What we know:
The protein has 280 residues and is an alpha/beta fold. It is 35% helix and 20% strand. Helix 1 packs across helix 2 and helix 4 packs across helix 8 (204-213). The chain is globular.
Amino acid sequence: MFFSLDVRRARKGDCLLLHYGTEQNPGLIMIDGGPKAVYGPHLRPRLEEIRKQRVKGNKPLQVDLLMVSHVDDDHIQGILDLTRELRKAADEQKPPLVQLLGLWHNSFDNIISHNTKELTTAVTGQFGPASVNGAAEFSDDQVVEVEEHYEEADVDPEEAKELVSSSLNGLTFKIAGPMLPEVDALRKKHLEWLKKLKEEGKKPSEVLAAYVDSSVPNLSSLVLLAEVKGKRMLLTGDGRGDKILEGLEGAGLLEKRGKIEVELLKIPHHGSANNLDDVL
């Protein structure tokens, strides 16, 4: 079994490929796609290289799971570039570069509200349906499903050990964030912010641009503990250090004020001093 993280050049953002499995049965997971000017020069060539190594002929490279940690531009833009390319290939009836078997992300609609129609319409108009509920753009061959087993971070630790978990060919994911209280707080804060922008007379497209440039979604980042045969990686997106620790505690993965050992830690928010301190 191999288990490695392939870090692509992503300017100010994140663009990761997680490799796992065996030479006979390799697995691949994409995590974020970086900002503009990352997919074309950095991510796509690497996907082509992997496809040549693993696939014969013009068949697409199988990607077991695509994760978008959150909707900030420096994480999602490269994924949107990829989905545009896949849609174009489908329209032209050409073989796609990759076949995406599953998608995990916190969509605009799920995070902010099911009632912010103007914003989601603007997102769909600019980026296509994949930007709001990307699974609609992908095949139904296989969808990785997870079930939530806890609702709040402050539940009893013993009860919280029945956490969100999923297994793929020997790779196990345990989800430590976002916690629902943070998502609810984010939704309320964002709706207040959106109302203010509308009162200032800005159009939905301007609202979208402002949203992409803001750091409001950071607390909604997916925080995942990936494990293969006892080796672990902690993938944190742009999460905040104290919230990551709370999530690990709530999921029963960390004793309160205890320590957790991992082989690899993806530093939150590109090492920003606003997101971590010596505790993490």
